[in-house]
Known about the structure:
This protein is mostly helical. 70% of the residues lie in helices and 0% in strands. Helix 1 packs across helix 3 and helix 2 crosses helix 3. It is globular. Belongs to the sigma-70 factor family. ECF subfamily. Keywords: Sigma factor, Transcription, Transcription regulation.
Amino acid sequence: MNKELEHRFVTELENNQNIVHKVCSLYTNDKDSHNDLFQEITIQLWKAYPKFRGDSKFSTWMYRVALNTAITLYRKSKRRVKTQDYDSVVHKIKADPYDDTEERQLKLMYDAVRQLGDIDKALVFLYLEDKNYTEIAETLGITEVNARVKMNRVKNKLRTILNP
Length: 164
């Protein structure tokens, strides 16, 4: 691979790396798993980059590769690493008091989203990233109508999970 292509890839990756971090946060529960998935997604992006034609925005293509890598990797993975939930150790950590309402709400939302299927997780993620249904459909490889229908169903699932 030539240096110009390598430079373009590194620049695009650096400018959009938060996309990969957000995907990793959605599909992992601890820092090591997050780092492993980040590395795997970066490898897959690098491998696929020479075939990136620019038909879509780089970020849209990056979402697609990152989500597909995360879904594929964790579907294939038979073993699940048992992790200790933050709530079970929070009493051991000394912290100054602060209003954690937003964090608790975000944690509840992440916990609810983690209960969804892989495609539904990706759909919610893109929706929360303020992607329109055209971009969501393009990223997930489904029709725009299908994306809307699935999103309505997912919203109902999340309501049920969050308000039993």
